[in-house]
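Researcher: Please predict.
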Amino acid sequence: MRKAASIAIDIGGTFTDVVLTVDDKVFVEKTPTTPVELLNGFFNGVTGVLNKAGLAPSDISGSVVHATTVVTNALIERCGEKIAMVFTEGFSDILEMRDCRRYDMYDLQLEFPKPLVESDHVVAVKERMRSDGIVHQPLDEDEIARVCARIAALGVRSVGICLLHAYKNDAHERQLADSIRRRLPGVHVSLSSEVAPQIREYWRASTTSVNAYAVPITEPYLGQIEARLRREGFSVQPLIMLSSGGVVGAKTAARMPVRMIESGPAAGALGAAFAARALDTKNLLAFDMGGTTAKVCMIQDFRPLVTGWFEIDRMYRFKEGSGLPVTVPTADLIEIGAGGGSIARVDDFGLLKVGPRSAGAAPGPACYGKGGAEATVTDADLVLGLLDPDKFLGGAMRLDVAAAKRVVGELASRLELDAIATARGIYQMVCEAMAGAVRAHAADRGVDYRGIPMLAFGGAGPVHACTVAAILNSSAVVFPPLASVYSAFGSLVTPIRLDLVRSALSRLSDLDWDHVEGIFEDLETEGRKALIEAGCSDADVTFIYAADMRYLGQQFEVAVELPARPARDGGSKALRECFESEYLKRYKLIQSKLEVELVTWRVTATVPGRAAPALGLPLGAGKNAKREFRRVDLWQTDQQVHVVARESLRPGDQLDGPLIIEEAETTIVIPPGWTASLGAIGAITATNNQSNGMRR
């Protein structure tokens, strides 16, 4: 019986990756991203992969999954429309004042990103809700009319509402929102009690402003995708990848675009978790290096780490607190400006620097022949001989070697070096930057990364992974099939799920179980509705429960997974046991005499058992493999390095580096001292023979 065909589209900063699976066969297409009109690149890739598979749009009966950077790009570039925010009178400066924390206590000239809302677009409303949810000052109709008139005068199409303690009682927010929608029907309204119903006023306000800023962009964008898919003949509704590692329907995603910010990287993290299970490797470092950025995520116990908040638009990449906080569940990863398009330059001190500025898709690296005039990582890789100019993207895009040598040579002259030494410096610096990011990310989470195998994917990841792994003293690097488009593949193995939260601050000993059960009912109803909208059956929806808890007096909490929905009988005791088990694992001690405080409830609605497509690629017999050599100048000048095609490898083959393995969409670089072999699921494993790291 023929299996349903599914397709995934991942729009990155440089390339748009498309993966189609049908009957345990996989077809891929990699096409340049079209930043001015993203849908052009989207459908160029879709058309290309359908042609390769010999299918029509009507043959896609499984799912169409989309991961996108449209929200991220809008926030970083600040290319959205002006929006308005409504706050409780007396708290209208909260976005400017932030939470009064200093991310560097010794820096007297701290810089923060500007709020997404201009100060003259902030509206104060007379109302007051107490922290226990009791109304202190009612919201009257005259005040509502005044606020609506002010919003109308501003001429905005999107407004966020963040009233004091609305996570506890959202009556005033809903009353105001209903009036705005009735009086100003063309205005999008984002409520903090829906977007981020959690304590900490600044974080809730920041998250609401991000959602309000993104809605006018994502709602028409996703609507255009739905409409064009129908016109092209697709019969299935698109699913949208979320930052938390799940997918939902386009309408749900359009209402809450703040949940889509890290959708592409999250897909890669879920793909890495899938590979970990297939390889029976509990812990992995997922390393995704594309054309614009590099991402790293820890896979522990076959699952990616997930956090309840993250920051965007940081002033300093490694300084927590220097960005705009967003309190939505997301795959816990670190992203740095170190991709194939990262630009190399000479700084004010005459030193070589690489990134974070990127050439992106337009104009791209100089070797793309689209007008790029600055040396990039890809140009350096080409000068070193790591890339074959005639086989880039499977031969679909020829690289301009002369242009790469010219821009690298110009940079070399400013450094008073030759072109080869400069290209080596670019290669080594970008690898050191990525290794440093891994160290910082792991140290912040108390993870010992030494000896943990690395899973390398993305267009540029396999070119640099072994060098990064050697710096980290990693024992092995695994290169999955479809490495160049692996994030797109990851979205096909992602469950349909939605993560929901609700703050309800209380000591465990004082829990109001009627209120707790009401919260669970509300969250389960919301999650069930979203999954049914995504095409799931009501009977298939299941729930996963968690809670954020802390010892009384602590400022921050620990996220704790719960084995089941807490019950009234014995629930408080069970919650404390779960909390202290997690606390002991993290901090090696517990405070049994202190009270435990519950801060936030978390409910995940999901449909388990989504069929995973085949990952392995067809393997050749290895008989007709051409023995080719290429000049590579990375490890020593004018070194002749053996080049093999991936399809020529046989299970059990072991090849010593230096070695280059060519795949249709990417290149795998195996340095001296490493041994490559073909194993499970068609993955190539490179083992570091010089590493003294312990496998974990």
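Model: The first strand starts at residue 6 and ends at 11.
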